[in-house]
Recover the amino acids of this structure.
């Protein structure tokens, strides 16, 4: 499975008109965490959060599956 970075996933979602608050609710983190990830002030993210961000981003803009 291909993954985006947290920052890339959030960028896809913001471009699709998701608010940081909506992204945070889905990922079960606070909006400030989403803001820090989006701006690059925070790079580390729990695996479960990265998976949730990618699930939501893939529902908006699927990544091509490469084998």
């Amino acid at each position: 499975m291909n993954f985006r970075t947290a920052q890339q996933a959030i960028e896809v979602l913001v471009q699709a008109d998701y608010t940081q608050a909506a992204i945070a609710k889905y990922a079960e983190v606070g909006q400030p965490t989403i803001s820090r990830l989006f701006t690059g002030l925070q790079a580390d993210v729990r695996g479960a959060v990265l998976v949730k961000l990618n699930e939501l981003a893939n529902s908006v803009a699927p990544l091509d599956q490469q084998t």
About this structure: The chain has one domain: 6-60. The domain at 6-60 is CATH 1.10.260 (434 Repressor (Amino-terminal Domain)). Helices lie at 6-15, 20-27, 31-39, 47-60.
